[in-house]
Amino acid sequence: MVYENAMVYGPDFRFHKGGFSVENGRFSSVLAAGGEPAEDLSGAYVVPGFVDIHNHGNSGHDFSDGDPEGLKVIAAYLAEHGITSFAPASVTLPEEQLRAAYQNAAAFAAEAPEGCAVLRGIHMEGPFFSEKKKGAQNGAFLQRPDYGVFLRLNEAANGLIKIADVAPELPGAVEYVEKVAKHCVVSIAHTEANYEQAKAAIAAGATHVTHLFNAMPAFLHRAPGVVGAAAESPWVDAELICDGMHVHESVVRAAFAMFGAERLCLISDALSCCGMPQGEYMLGGQKIVLDGTVARLADAPDTLAGSANNLFGIFRMALSFGIPAEAAVRMASGNPARAIGADGEIGSIGNGKRADFLVLNGDFSLRRVFLAGRERKGN
Asked: Is the pTM higher than 0.90?
């Protein structure tokens, strides 16, 4: 199929007027399409399918529950809202429960149900976190970094762990980073680490920061902490929950100035309550309360548990905060794809890549979703 007369987000992360072809589910003739028949997209924006590398669930289902049908519901909802690939995030739970969830993920990835977002990895969020910065993670199941636990879970997941989180100040954390970095991206998260401890983790191989500014020390002029250590390390990426609640819009703009369009990954950190009515839900054995587009711990209402917004909604928020459209698209597609090692397959519109793409209206609202070149219809 040939598409013409669009503003195509090219492999250079810029919009260009032109077209493209899709053959056998893959892009071809990007910005050089021709021939008949051609579908006229009437100047619409065409962008890569979005990639959420930190998403716990939606529609009343949590990835960590290990429910096969629930995971399918999660992935169908994501595809409906323009998120064509994802790396679901687990929470701090006993190893046997995480193993069940990871085995479920491996089975789902192998099945690749039609009409669903593609599961391209797992984000192992926990259990190696600081007690004081655990946030909504269940403190009853926190533990010290354990390479054996990582290996067993990664085996259960058929090697799907793409991001593994750790608090660098914990005993044995630096050694853990050195070992795990040989298998996947290691991310600094839920931590009290100071600047020196964060730099030690980065030197050991950490190349990612989980939800920048959240669950970590503040960035201060005499104590730059994790934020300062990451910002000055150009090989370190950072996630950002751009919802105006987890991070103020001014800080979103500051993060963009510090890290640039090439190093920030927009994430949803969405919970099971995403896409659901307000009320009580569960997260890692704890009650949470949905309030607007954020969820809070029921017994600690000042503690944010996560978001109830999907990544496309986060993208629209970034635009409203002044992030340039071309940068925001990259932060929701190309950068997260690179973070999980999938940028050779997805994350940009380039010849030979899988044809996951979105057609957007002039105001960047979602019009159409395509998975491997096929338009997704309905729910």
From this structure: yes
